[in-house]
Design brief:
InterPro entries: Acyl_CoA_acyltransferase (IPR016181), Gcn5-rel_NAT (IPR045057), GNAT_YJDJ (IPR031165)
CATH superfamily: Gcn5-related N-acetyltransferase (GNAT)
Domain N-acetyltransferase: 6-91
Number of strands: 5
Number of domains: 1
CATH architecture: 3-Layer(aba) Sandwich
Structural class: alpha+beta
Number of helices: 2
Pfam family, one: Acetyltransf_CG
Protein name: N-acetyltransferase
């Protein structure tokens, strides 16, 4: 799924507008790290793979920016369990159970 994901620093979130709704991942960013704190997909869009597509594009941006990921959001942690190749972004010492 190809979403148009943009970083909205004013709201501290990555977001994508789909069918008149906005899906987003909230974050806290430092110079070297990004803490993904909450993912939200509107009920009208649930079950369409939008959350996973959003996480994937956010991970691609995090990698491009050279940031270290701290996954505090349960949805992001679940995505990492299913896609262990992205664990390369995760801060050392964090265990994704």
């Amino acid at each position: 799924m190809d979403l148009n994901v943009t970083d909205n620093p004013d709201k501290k979130r990555y977001e994508a507008a789909i069918e008149g709704h906005t899906a987003f991942i909230e974050y806290i960013k430092t110079k070297e790290k990004i803490f993904l704190t909450h993912t939200e997909v509107p009920v009208a869009l649930e079950g369409k793979g939008i959350g996973s597509a959003l996480v994937l594009q956010v991970f691609e941006d995090i990698e491009k920016l050279g940031l270290t990921l701290v996954p505090l959001c349960p949805f992001v942690a679940m995505y990492l369990k299913k896609h262990p190749e992205w664990r390369r972004l995760v801060m050392k010492g964090i265990n994704i159970a």
